[in-house]
Design a protein that fits this description.
Length: 188
């Protein structure tokens, strides 16, 4: 929901989806492809199998002993930003948007300090890419409202952490349901 809302709101020239070996990769790719078509945004898919390094719900394994929550994957945002940065340099893109929210601060890589640090690191390398989290001070409901994304476009978002179909039990499915309910798009 976060990335789809930011794509609607900020209209980047390129959307990048990364299959890094996460369980819901196919559904995430399908959703991103459809949203990119709807928004007339060029879409690139990167395939890098890091499944042997994963942890928790998204890897289909038990969470690591240092995991703050069940879907934690070690250094995930750092990995994704690096891979997206490689694609961005090739496409002469100078800014990456990520979907970090205020409520993502359970993860060190979902905090403003991380975004500032990774942006500084990426800007100091060839290509001088910056990283922004335009919704870092918002929760999901406020992001959806701020972005103005229509319900029929947000409906394409895939939030399940465990597979290609909503399990209804993971933290991603719970967030998706509670956001839609708070927006009044699901009857109370």
């Amino acid at each position: 929901m976060d990335s789809v809302s930011i794509a609607w709101w900020r209209r980047p020239s390129l959307a990048i989806t990364i299959d890094y070996g996460q369980k819901p990769a196919k559904a995430e790719i399908d959703a991103a492809t459809q949203v990119a078509k709807l928004l007339n945004i060029r879409h690139e898919i990167i395939y890098v199998d890091c499944s042997s390094l994963g942890s928790g719900d998204m890897a289909g394994t038990s969470p690591s002993s240092v995991a703050p929550v069940s879907e934690w994957w070690p250094f995930r945002n750092q990995l994704l930003i690096t891979l997206a940065g490689m694609a961005a340099v090739r496409s002469s893109i100078g800014k990456l948007y990520i979907g970090a929210l205020a409520t993502d601060d359970l993860h060190a890589d979902g905090r403003a300090e991380f975004v500032e640090g990774i942006s500084s690191l990426m800007a100091n390398q060839e290509g001088s890419i910056t990283v922004e989290a335009p919704a870092i001070g918002l929760d999901a409901v406020t992001l959806v409202k701020t972005s103005g994304i229509p319900q029929e476009v947000l409906a394409w978002a895939h939030s399940c952490h465990t597979g290609d179909y909503a399990c209804g039990r993971c933290r991603g499915c719970a967030k998706h349901f509670h956001t839609w309910k708070a927006l009044g798009w699901i009857p109370h």
